[in-house]
Amino acid sequence: MQEARVELLQRMPIFGGIRDEIIQFLLASCPLLSIPADNYFFREHDKGDTMFVLEVGKVAVLKSWRGQEHLLQTLKQGDCFGEMAVMDYCERSASVRAVADCVAVCISSANLYKIYAHDLKQFALIQMNMGREVSRRLRDADDRLFAARFAAVDTNTGQNSLTD
């Protein structure tokens, strides 16, 4: 099972190019977390310093607005979430709820710091990969925001209802 976890992480952009022995070193200190369907990994505004790699199951990423949760996206096996909290130690920007029974590898900033102490070059690569992944997601969010704003333009008047 450990080999499957190593392969799972190596297929992810964040751990791309990371050597097997470093991922095994990391996994040795990372617990598995089981979350039943309809339960939360975490909620928006919770404090956090942990990211999760989904090994089994499916989750919904949700954002609250006016007292209701709205679906941002659905993630599946092999996807990760929560990495922003590992980078910036800020509150969670969204909630993540299990849609099906889930098992996830729980990777804390303390776990990653062990790699820093063990192999600085591999740690730096993980950090660069994490920055690239967060940047990719930001670009995607920018594109979706632009598309939503463009769609809000009133075709009759040609004015943007979001800014006028």
Number of helices: 5
Average pLDDT confidence is 90
Could you give the count of β-strands?
Answer: 8
Helix content: 25-40%
Please identify, by name, the CATH architecture: Sandwich
What is the CATH superfamily classification? Jelly Rolls
Describe the main β-sheet briefly. 4 strands, antiparallel
Say what oligomer this is.
Answer: single chain
Task: Based on Cα principal axes, name the global outline.
Answer: globular
Write down the domain tally: 1
Rg for CA atoms: 18 Å
Proportion of residues in extended strands = 25-35%
Assigned CATH class: Mainly Beta
And the CATH topology? Jelly Rolls
Read across the widest sheet, the strand sequence of neighbours is 1-8-3-6
Helix-and-strand structural type: alpha+beta
Low-confidence runs of at least 5 consecutive residues: none
Helix and strand succession? HHEEEEEEHEEHH
Write out key terms for the chains shown.
alpha+beta; Jelly Rolls; four-stranded antiparallel sheet; globular
Explain the overall architecture.
40% of the residues lie in helices and 27% in strands. With 164 residues, it is an alpha+beta fold. It has a single domain, classed as Jelly Rolls. It has a 4-stranded antiparallel β-sheet. A 4-stranded antiparallel β-sheet has the order 2-7-4-5, with no helix packed on it. Strand 4 (58-65) and strand 5 form a beta hairpin. The longest helix has 32 residues, at 120-151. The chain is globular, with a radius of gyration of 18 Å. The N and C termini lie far apart (56 Å).
